[in-house]
């Protein structure tokens, strides 16, 4: 008997990447420096003054020269959609340039040519942790209101260029990450401990306004654009039945969600306004800002990798490798990087986001980072297959719950350089890239076992999942 599937016809199966983690060619094609080019160890150490040879992202997997080969592999898997980011500093090398860099625009023209050849829908992230370095060093990053105009000019340039070729857009990647990593998420060259609450939340406000204004401009250029926000989804469970733990989990969830609240509802939620008052933060908000924020998104996209627990007990065990806080949940297993493996948490996240926002949802990052071993030209990654199978079963359950889910793009569908550590040993891909963290390797591509598994999942629209 043929297995039935709840995944709707037209469900957008695919994969996701970020320019700074795969393109390489950091100084080719007229590209300027981005904040990533001075982060040789990811989040592990402060930025350097200039790019250094040990920054693996300067070379990455050389997608800049191999994109046609890689997109052909995505097509072989049957991708319906490919989520990728445009490197802002390829288009405006310094961020504040008067004119865009034609070489950069032409590169993404060629990428789109390849996607169109195979009928793969592009989903473009405008800003994925790769703000031009000059905007950080000369302006102080997103704490400076001038970045709003620079970003909107960049977004408008890209919208105009690709208005007839791209339907789906995301304004900022994991926009709530700035709460924990101000340089990565906000191009502010300070640690979380150094930055003031006033500066942090003013930067957040500028990002919210920039996103809303870009959404407005995009809709004016092409009313058929579907423009979404992108947040980190991290379910937070109370560690114990204590009311104090339950309320802490609730409040931390509300503070995670306010980015989505603003994008979806067009105004600041009351819980955030109280938080700002109690921290003595008085934001500079203009009447025009309030009008701009009313330009809300069409859908909500998100990354999901783990859940955490919350506790008011100061001795509760904190996790490692997770920038989003919380404590270890003893009821779930951990990945090699200490991330809680919780497939049901994905269904939980989908339900809570739908209940909260009533907007279509798009899972644009999910996957398992693991150490892979190449054996006879392949990787036997049954652990990745099991992880993804179990998560996709929960996606199907959420669809049965009546939640409109647009698609699923697995993170790092081809092995990438890690954003957090600038290494490649933490691999997510269906495609193995022969690259080592010391920069050696042939850069040859190899299909893992998961490549063929995912190909079958897409071909059957999820019917081949093991339930």
UniProtKB/TrEMBL annotation:
Keyword Hydrolase applies: yes
Gene Ontology BP terms: carbohydrate catabolic process
Alphabetized GO MF terms: beta-glucosidase activity
Keywords of this entry: Glycosidase, Hydrolase
Pfam families noted in UniProt: Glyco_hydro_1
Protein name (Swiss-Prot/TrEMBL): 6-phospho-beta-glucosidase
Domain of life of the source: Bacteria
PANTHER family: 6-PHOSPHO-BETA-GLUCOSIDASE ASCB-RELATED (PTHR10353:SF122), GLYCOSYL HYDROLASE (PTHR10353)
Family designation: Belongs to the glycosyl hydrolase 1 family.
Gene Ontology CC annotation, any one: cytosol
Active site: 365 (nucleophile)
Keyword Hydrolase: yes
């Amino acid at each position: 008997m043929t297995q039935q599937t709840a995944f709707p016809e037209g469900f957008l199966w695919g994969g996701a990447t970020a320019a700074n983690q795969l393109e390489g060619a950091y100084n080719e094609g007229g590209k300027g420096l981005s904040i990533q080019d001075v982060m040789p160890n990811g989040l592990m150490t402060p930025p350097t003054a200039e790019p250094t040879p040990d920054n693996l992202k300067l070379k990455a997997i050389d997608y800049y020269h191999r994109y046609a080969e890689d997109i052909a592999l995505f097509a072989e898997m049957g991708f319906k959609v490919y989520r990728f980011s445009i490197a802002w500093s390829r288009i405006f090398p310094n961020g504040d340039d008067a004119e865009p860099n034609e070489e950069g625009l032409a590169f993404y023209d060629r990428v789109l040519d390849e996607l169109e050849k195979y009928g793969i829908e592009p989903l473009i992230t405008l800003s994925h942790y790769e703000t031009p370095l000059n905007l950080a060093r000369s302006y102080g990053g997103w704490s400076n209101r001038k970045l709003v105009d620079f970003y909107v000019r960049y977004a408008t340039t890209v919208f105009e260029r690709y208005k007839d070729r791209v339907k789906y857009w995301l304004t900022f990647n994991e926009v709530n990450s700035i709460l924990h990593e101000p340089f990565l998420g906000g191009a502010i060259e300070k640690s979380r401990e150094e930055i003031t609450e006033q500066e942090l939340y003013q930067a957040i406000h500028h990002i919210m306004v920039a996103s809303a204004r870009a959404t407005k401009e995009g809709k004016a250029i092409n009313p058929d654009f579907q423009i979404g926000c992108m947040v980190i989804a991290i379910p937070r469970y109370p560690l114990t039945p204590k009311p104090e733990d339950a309320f802490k989990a609730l409040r931390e969830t509300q503070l995670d969600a306010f980015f989505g609240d603003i994008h979806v509802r067009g105004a600041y939620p009351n819980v955030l306004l109280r938080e700002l008052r109690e921290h003595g933060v008085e934001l500079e908000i203009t009447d025009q800002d309030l009008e701009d924020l009313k330009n809300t998104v069409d859908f909500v996209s998100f990354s999901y990798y783990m859940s955490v627990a919350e506790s008011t007990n100061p001795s509760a065990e904190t996790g490692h490798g997770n920038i989003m806080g919380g404590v270890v949940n003893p009821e779930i297993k951990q990945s090699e990087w200490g991330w809680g493996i919780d497939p049901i948490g994905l269904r939980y996240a989908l339900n809570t986001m739908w209940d909260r926002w009533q907007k279509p949802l798009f899972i644009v990052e999910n996957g398992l980072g693991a150490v892979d071993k190449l054996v006879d030209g392949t990787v036997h990654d049954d652990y990745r297959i099991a992880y993804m199978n179990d998560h996709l079963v929960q996606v199907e359950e959420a669809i049965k719950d009546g939640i409109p889910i647009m698609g699923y793009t697995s993170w790092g569908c081809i092995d990438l350089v890690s954003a957090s550590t600038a290494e490649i040993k933490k691999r997510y891909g269906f495609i193995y890239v022969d690259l080592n963290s010391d920069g050696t390797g042939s850069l040859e591509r190899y299909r893992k076992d998961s490549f063929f598994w995912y190909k079958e999942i897409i071909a059957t629209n999820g019917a081949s999942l093991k339930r």
